[in-house]
Amino acid sequence: MTIVLILLGFLVGAFIMTMGGGGGAFYLGIMTGVAHLSPSTATATSLFTAIPALAVGCYSHYRTGNMRLHAGNKILLTAVPATIVGSLAAPYIPELIYSWTIAIIFVVLGVQMLRQSFAHHVKKTGQPTWFAYLLGIISGLMVGIAGLSGGGPIMAGLMLMGLDMPHAAATSSYALVALSIVGSLLHATQGTIAWTVGGLLMLGSLVGAAITPRILNRFDPRLLTAILRPVLGILLIAMAVNQVW
């Protein structure tokens, strides 16, 4: 089990740094499906586990010069308050309503990503400022209510704002560090952290997060974006199906 958790952590850490987020769902899946933790414990442990890997990956991304702090701050301006509000409101929101709302959001974002990938006539200019604020709210609510990383909306929003894949992934990692810290503090009061499981996953994810940005920086940003943008779109739609299945 120890080796399995470390290996799975490595894969999640590499995935988060490649796709700019989205690892929260995988952490939760591993902790509930493989380690058999309770949902409340898995949620608290997931956010705690993600912080070191995100911090290391964020620093590696920063060293590559791909981080765009201005775009990330637009997201955080509404994401952090939404995380706090979501955590406070979580006990009063019916699970069915939350699941369908998130699913619809994921489908819309996923379709937008696929349209940008395959419809060459789609306009490539960035979205207005309010769009970044809206995606920040969605991401913050995901972290606050469900303990997810919130990386999907952030990554999609940054790319729809005009950033290519390497710049969006780097900027997303910066935003996710802040949200994970806030979310971890809030959810730690609602569930017990499983230190052994979290520590093993953390160890693997730290290695994956540390080396992935340097590997990504060796590829042409346009080629990387062309390959990974539709992948992200499909993943968002798959996550939407998983929300309501």
Q: Poorly predicted ranges (pLDDT <50, ≥5 residues)?
A: none
Percent of residues in beta strands: under 5%
What is the makeup of the main sheet?
none
Please indicate the count of domains.
1
- The overall average pLDDT, rounded, is 79
Helix content: over 70%
* Distance separating the two termini: 28 Å
Q: Count of helical segments? A: 10
| Spatial extent as radius of gyration | 17 Å
Structural class: mainly alpha
* Number of extended strands: 0
- The sequence of SSEs as H and E is HHHHHHHHHH
Shape: globular
Would you give an account of this structure?
Helix 1 crosses helix 8 (165-187) and helix 5 runs antiparallel to helix 10. This protein has one domain. By secondary structure, the chain is mostly helical. It has helices spanning 2-19, 23-33, 39-64, 69-89, 95-118, 129-146, 151-160, 165-187, 195-216, 221-244. Helix content is 80%, strand content 0%. It has ten helices and no strands.
